[in-house]
Amino acid sequence: MIASRNRRDDLLASLPRHEAPVVLVDNASTDDTVAAVARAHPEVTVVPLPENVGAVARTIGVEHAGTPFVAFTDDDSWWAPGDLARAVEVMRAHPRLGLLAARILVGPENRLDPVCTEMAQSPLRREPDLPGPSLLGFVACAALVRVEAFAAVGGFDDVVRFPGEEERVALDLAAAGWGLAYVDEVTVHHHPSTHRDANTVRQTGIWRSRVLTALMRYPLPALAGQLLRAARAGRPGVRGLASAVPRVPAALRARRVLPTTVMTGVRELQG
């Protein structure tokens, strides 16, 4: 499942690499993405949206897939040959596993994404019924979800949107009793698009998402700590706080404090 906006050329290059049926949800692209994909890849299910809904597009894509498992990729990423099928086998063998996070190799030189080292060394207790280190986060371009679990927590929401949308989903999966694990034996390739926001813009968006997620899920002491971290994070953190303000009412309406067990894990990761 791919959510995309204005990355026609990246899509046309990556789509032939996918080994499973693809659902493409287009976030109101203005670069002729929908027509170009339809011409070049009529086998792809294209869902054009009239407006950009951010990460909610992935939730829409899952609804269209109609399968028990859905793999997320981006327009500039794809699963290594045979590895998506292997990942599904892992999911079937571990019925409590709600989300599998794959290893990510970056660029033609296949550099290991540093986030994979962090996931492999997760300080969270490894659960005996999971196939790898336990997680409370993931990278959406390299994850396989059990649709039953994903749907139960509402998928991606229209409060956080993008980027940094993964945390709230991960926390809610854990709160609902589902496991999240890093599995190093399956790989996703990521060749970052040249059509990307500047790093400062992205960091601002990530801090906005952290603040909104904390508003929706953290108990008050932890929420205060996250707000303080944002304020101390320099310009991206301060701008993230400011850009979160218009979404505060929606975040508070969706507020549901996490259980102590999950917040203990959050503190371990932050510490």
Content of β-strand: 15-25%
Number of strands: 9
Stretches where pLDDT is under 50 for at least 5 consecutive residues are none
Helix content bin: 40-55%
Main sheet: strands, sense, barrel:
6 strands, mixed
Summarize the helix and strand pattern as letters. Answer: EHEHEHEEHEEHEHHEHHHHH
Structural class: alpha/beta
Overall mean pLDDT: 96
Q: What does the radius of gyration come to?
A: 18 Å
Which word captures the global form?
globular
N/C terminus separation:
34 Å
Number of helices: 12
In short, what is this structure?
It contains twelve helices and nine strands. The protein is of the alpha/beta class and 271 residues long.
Q: How would you describe what is shown here?
A:
This protein starts with a strand and ends with a helix. The chain has twelve helices and nine strands. Helices cover 43% and strands 17% of the residues. Helix 1 runs parallel beside helix 2 and helix 8 runs antiparallel to helix 9. Strands 4, 5, 6, 7, 8 and 9 form a six-stranded mixed sheet that branches. Strands 1-2-3 form a three-stranded parallel sheet, with helices on both faces. It is α/β, with parallel strands linked by helices and 271 residues long.
Secondary structure: elements and pairs:
Layout: E1 2-4, H1 8-14, E2 23-26, H2 33-40, E3 45-48, H3 56-65, E4 69-72, E5 77-79, H4 83-93, E6 97-106, E7 111-112, H5 114-120, E8 143-146, H6 147-152, H7 166-175, E9 179-190, H8 199-217, H9 220-231, H10 235-244, H11 248-253, H12 260-270
Parallel strand pairs: 1-2, 2-3, 6-9
Antiparallel strand pairs: 4-8, 5-9, 6-7, 6-8
Helix pairs in contact: 1-2, 8-9, 8-10, 9-10
